[in-house]
Amino acid sequence: MKILFLGDVMGRAGRQAVSDGLPKLRAAWKLDFVVVNGENATSGMGLSAAHARAILEAGADCVTLGDHAFDQKDMLQFCEAEPRIIRPLNFSKSAPGKGARLFEARGGRKVLVCQALGQVFMKRPFDDPFSATEAVFRTHPLGGQASAVIVDFHCEATSEKMAMGHWCDGRASLVVGTHTHVPTADAMILRKGTAYLTDAGMCGDYDSVIGMQRDEPLRRFITGMPKERFSPALGEVTLSGVYIETDDKTGKATRIEMVRQGGRLPPAGPAPIA
Amino acid sequence: MKILFLGDVMGRAGRQAVSDGLPKLRAAWKLDFVVVNGENATSGMGLSAAHARAILEAGADCVTLGDHAFDQKDMLQFCEAEPRIIRPLNFSKSAPGKGARLFEARGGRKVLVCQALGQVFMKRPFDDPFSATEAVFRTHPLGGQASAVIVDFHCEATSEKMAMGHWCDGRASLVVGTHTHVPTADAMILRKGTAYLTDAGMCGDYDSVIGMQRDEPLRRFITGMPKERFSPALGEVTLSGVYIETDDKTGKATRIEMVRQGGRLPPAGPAPIA
Amino acid sequence: MKILFLGDVMGRAGRQAVSDGLPKLRAAWKLDFVVVNGENATSGMGLSAAHARAILEAGADCVTLGDHAFDQKDMLQFCEAEPRIIRPLNFSKSAPGKGARLFEARGGRKVLVCQALGQVFMKRPFDDPFSATEAVFRTHPLGGQASAVIVDFHCEATSEKMAMGHWCDGRASLVVGTHTHVPTADAMILRKGTAYLTDAGMCGDYDSVIGMQRDEPLRRFITGMPKERFSPALGEVTLSGVYIETDDKTGKATRIEMVRQGGRLPPAGPAPIA
Amino acid sequence: MKILFLGDVMGRAGRQAVSDGLPKLRAAWKLDFVVVNGENATSGMGLSAAHARAILEAGADCVTLGDHAFDQKDMLQFCEAEPRIIRPLNFSKSAPGKGARLFEARGGRKVLVCQALGQVFMKRPFDDPFSATEAVFRTHPLGGQASAVIVDFHCEATSEKMAMGHWCDGRASLVVGTHTHVPTADAMILRKGTAYLTDAGMCGDYDSVIGMQRDEPLRRFITGMPKERFSPALGEVTLSGVYIETDDKTGKATRIEMVRQGGRLPPAGPAPIA
Ligand SMILES: [Fe+2]
Ligand SMILES: [Fe+2]
Ligand SMILES: [Fe+2]
Ligand SMILES: [Fe+2]
Ligand SMILES: [Fe+2]
Ligand SMILES: [Fe+2]
Ligand SMILES: [Fe+2]
Ligand SMILES: [Fe+2]
């Protein structure tokens, strides 16, 4: 299967770039399944129902969230009504929606998508993501009902992400980090066949501070005194993420490529776009 | 000037790979100046005098440290005796050694190297790195005595690193992050001419948890109970960092390329090595 | 019932003071049940089996632990063999021992003791303590089998501790914080009958930095550079904790008094000791 | 000199209690100098100019702030215009106002008041408070121009506070912690004559979560999902703080008493109020 995962969509510019660019990538790379992390698509803070619909319409089969899952209050209802939304498994015991679900890809093949939140350096505490993903793997073994298993691990620390990669190795097709908004360059296939990338990066303007216009974050770092709200940067967007190919029988990855399309970052992907 | 910066050297395997590989890179890419971050070269924890010497002999013009600067106690003396060691500007008011210094590159040109520690998500608190670097820029303006200015920003958070990039933009030739041990893929030249990469990654074995053998970190994440010490992974090493070219007159960057040589990561660099 | 809870016993001096003083308090105040937090009794780091036995022999009916529960490795076995040891409910899914247990007090009455770890400002992450205690209250309702229910909430943040007090209000006889090693002065009975104190303080020498000799902690705060191990202070100890009286029928608290006996702190307790 | 320090005033109820109670305490205890921490007096978040004036009119000679110093924007100007406001020494290099100042007490004696922020467990990073206070002590030695020196150390961690106590011992008349909103019971005079209390507690309603109405903080701890703003609790207030007596010649403390007046906490103070 050919699968694309795009990292945190950042505000209006990020949404527009997904709407414009994802259909082209889908066609050019003959994608079977697409996951997009949408936790920052609405003003950089959460995801509204309307913006979730726009990302789905652009060609996402599944939209994942993150620690900002419910910053937009209508997501509390929407994630119950729209099965294509995945929130973190360990967001909170009382969170609405689901943290793992089996999706149908092109040709009727099944893809499991789940998301977990890390515990290191996060603004608020979450329960153990290692046992949370373990529970999912037990009910959805790779190469069983699920032809592919995708884990979006939303966290800050590189140590926790690499540990999660090894934890899932052989039990997931892809473990990809999100949340830091900077793509890493360590795409690899782990020992037992799991494709791994520490962070997908964001779909946003990289002439910024993690997707936000530079002035306010800089002011806060330098003076310690906030003055305005953060506001997503509106310059040219790089769509950033990861592309994998998997063996339908085993669910294991046979190829992994970093994806960076447009904007200021060095371009990458499985093949050029005409 | 052609400048190479290599990220945190990780233990014995990392040191060996630097000793073997750096002379080749120096020759192949006709490097004028090389900086290597050595804060994890000795058992993954700090840098001994002997290992610092080995990295310098391999072809580093300058070795930077980090939050682990003085984990090896003989560095307390060595960094006073050996001017090619740079410790963080804001490590502590009573730290020995220097946080910024002017070096001589090939052909007598001068290069300023400085290092600062971030404040976000670090294990212990450090003073403000923004005013620390500001003070350095005031005494060493880019394009003055210094043909190039290199800032190693040793910190965890992508937001703080991107903010530091903009803060230094036009005042440094290169701002490169270290500390997370995972290379990022966001190499770019900022608006006013500063080359920027969020993290250089490590010179270590990436089949690991940030360079440490996987078992003990995994155990701690999963069970919460330590059993053994951490021990650096000993598999094939990727030399990871960044290459820039600068204009000697202005000190600004004219080119930036990610560098990944050997090991498990996708290869990158300004040119192939014979 | 007359119940005494003593906070974190700190090293050799703390153990000695418990051995000397607890029998006197037991007699003078006609105590029915005594809980002692022992997580720092062995060199300030964890609790060995031998030192646990000493605290039990001094008159503790139950010894609780904390985030340092297994710093002494023989506690991994001992807490399975000795039912009077309680480790945190949410230490880790794979921790040995128990986080809640029903004890027998004088006259055959039953007392439930449980301990939970907080999530805010702790060195490593733990799972949600609110749902962990909820599960205990469901199986052990106050005024059912248990004549009294004692919750040791081991955490740093005053906000989390006060929230836990309200969360347990009417479901526990006592919620008492541990871990900060400084006694608070906010002893009160909450709206629905639960006695509450934010922190019990330590059984240790208060001419110290939270029970450790001052020099090394001061050095680390001032210079950022460790030089020696921490070592428990050995001066005169204050036994610090809380005394409550409960109604055996309802399990609710009818009286709460701070306890500080000996050493440098202002003395407090339900009655003078002859 | 007879000096009273009151901890963080919490919202409307706290302000009212200070206005009602402080004149009585001033008269009853014949106070020479009064400091009040006002960082939460305005809706629990910062201090407006109007509310600062009200606290000064109630009898405070000096009002200190904290990490919430500038949550109310008019304090940015007011702290420049009103010399009786002290903000943290190490709030930020660009903060308006002053972090230390010499005040005149009854009878023309001079009192130095300064405030510093801790670095451990704070929401944002601050520069080293140990060297910040050192600089103040150098220019204002105890027993020189200043008959008394008062240090408000605004921080979370008990270890950092106790270390600051020892750091200032013999150089300050009083080191008192603020910020946690829970009074500690460890009032003591340190070896070289400095009165010390880890935390003054708050002037607020203790039937709360650190002064805020319980429902929203409890919801956030239990469900992880915010619903409303925090709002200060409005029940009966305890004025909480510390009283010291000093020797005018040496500046050293001769007496320290915890102060808790009104509300739910056990009463304390140097003498009963008629
Ligand atoms: Fe995000
Ligand atoms: Fe996030
Ligand atoms: Fe490192
Ligand atoms: Fe580091
Ligand atoms: Fe403790
Ligand atoms: Fe503890
Ligand atoms: Fe406060
Ligand atoms: Fe505060």
From TrEMBL, chains A, B, C, D:
SUPFAM superfamilies: Metallo-dependent phosphatases
Organism: Pseudosulfitobacter pseudonitzschiae
Positions annotated to bind Fe cation 2: 39, 67, 154, 179
Name of the protein in question: YmdB-like protein
Active site: 68
Binding residues annotated for Fe cation 1, in chain numbering: 8, 39-40, 181
One GO molecular-function entry: metal ion binding
InterPro entries linked to this entry: Metallo-depent_PP-like (IPR029052), YmdB-like (IPR005235)
UniProt keyword terms in alphabetical order: Metal-binding
Source superkingdom: Bacteria
